[in-house]
Write a structure and sequence with these properties.
single chain; alpha/beta; Rossmann fold; binds zinc ion
C-alpha cells in the first residue's frame, strides 16, 4: 500500500510530529473493523504518525497506518523501544501488554449489546475521533469481475454453514471457485466431497485481496475473508449463525443472512447461541435468491449501506 510521507507535507519550521500508538491484536476481521476508528483518528490528527501494534500482514490492509510494530518479529523490549513515548496510546484489548506505555485509552474490543464493534472503537476515542458516515463505506465500488468465490471456512467450526449447503449452492451458480486459506483445509475438503470445484489457495493476504477484486460476488461465513471481501467493495453475502451481526457484521458491501432466533448478547461474548442447527437453518434458496438479486441488480445492495440509512 502506498503511504503519504507526512514529513514531506509538514510546514517548514514545525518540528513536532504527534505520534499515536494503537494496539489491536486479533484476526483479520478484527483488524478490518478498526478502520473507521483509524480514519476518524486520521481526520482529527491529519499530520500524526499512526503506529499500530499487531500482525503486520493484517494491519497493512489499513492504508491510514504509517508503521506497524509486529510483536511476532520483535522482542518485547525492542517493541517498547520502537514505540517510544507516544503522545496518544490507545489499547483495544482485554489485557494491557505490560511492556507498552501506560495507555490514554484502554477498552475491551468487544462492543456492548446492540452496538457494532466498529462504532464501539470509534466511540472509545472520545474527543480524539472525528468520525464521518463515509467511514463505514467500502473502499471502492468499482466492480467489473465475473467470478463467484465461495469461502466455506471460518475461525471456528460453529461459524460454518454446512459443507453440503455450499455444494448445493454451487450447482446453481456459474464460474464458482472455492477459496482455501491456511486453516480452511477441512472445510474445503468437505465441500469437495459433494462437488468438484476449482480451488483457489492464495499465497498471502495481498494475493487473496487481488483475487477477490476480480469477483462479481463473494459468499462466506462470519470470517475474516468475508470481512475483507466486503471491505474491498465486492458484493458480499455473509452467512451468520451464532454470532450477532448487529455487533460483528462486515463493513462495506455486505448483506448478512441469518436465521438465528437466540436473543443476542451479553457483553464480552462473541457467541450468542449454542443451537447446533442454527446455521443449518439457513436454506440454500435464501442464499441463492440474495445472490441473484445482488448480481442482477447491482444497486440494491448499495442502498443498505448508504450513509444515514
Ligand atoms: Zn442461533
Amino acid at each position: 500500500m502506498l503511504r503519504k510521507d507526512k514529513r514531506s507535507t509538514r510546514p517548514l519550521g514545525l518540528s513536532f510530529t504527534m505520534r499515536i500508538l494503537l494496539v489491536r491484536e486479533g484476526a483479520l476481521g478484527d483488524i478490518l473493523l478498526t478502520r473507521p476508528a483509524v480514519r476518524a483518528l486520521r481526520r482529527r490528527y491529519p499530520a500524526a504518525d499512526l503506529m499500530a501494534v499487531g500482525p503486520k500482514t493484517r494491519w497493512r490492509l489499513i492504508p491510514e497506518i504509517d508503521e506497524v510494530l509486529d510483536p511476532d518479529g520483535l522482542l518485547p523490549h525492542h517493541l517498547a523501544a520502537r514505540a517510544g513515548h507516544p503522545d496518544l496510546t490507545v489499547i483495544w484489548a482485554v489485557h494491557r501488554p505490560a511492556f507498552l506505555p501506560a495507555p490514554d485509552i484502554h477498552v475491551s474490543p468487544y462492543p456492548p449489546p446492540g452496538m457494532h464493534a466498529a462504532d464501539w472503537l470509534v466511540r472509545s476515542l472520545g474527543p480524539h475521533a472525528d468520525p464521518a458516515p463515509g467511514d463505514l463505506e467500502p473502499a471502492s465500488r468499482a466492480h467489473t469481475g465475473a467470478g463467484i468465490y465461495l469461502h466455506p471456512g471460518a475461525g471456528a467450526a460453529w461459524k460454518r454453514w454446512p459443507a453440503d449447503r455450499f455444494a448445493e449452492l454451487a450447482t446453481h451458480l456459474c464460474g464458482v471457485h472455492l477459496i482455501e486459506g491456511p486453516a480452511d483445509g477441512n472445510a474445503v475438503a468437505e465441500v469437495l466431497e459433494h462437488i468438484d470445484l476449482p480451488v483457489l489457495r492464495p499465497s498471502s493476504l495481498e494475493d487473496l485481496a487481488q483475487h477477490l477484486r476480480t469477483a462479481c460476488l463473494f459468499i462466506g461465513n462470519d470470517s475474516g475473508v468475508t470481512h475483507l471481501a466486503a471491505a474491498l467493495g465486492v458484493p458480499t453475502i455473509a452467512l451468520f449463525g451464532p454470532t450477532d451481526p448487529v455487533q460483528w457484521a462486515p463493513l462495506g458491501r455486505a448483506r448478512v443472512l441469518r436465521r438465528c432466533a437466540a436473543h443476542a448478547g451479553r457483553q464480552g461474548q462473541i457467541r450468542v447461541c449454542d443451537d447446533p442447527t442454527c446455521l443449518a437453518a439457513l436454506p440454500v434458496a435464501d442464499v441463492l435468491a440474495t445472490a441473484t438479486e445482488m448480481t442482477v441488480d447491482k444497486d440494491v445492495d448499495d442502498a443498505s449501506r448508504e450513509p444515514g440509512a
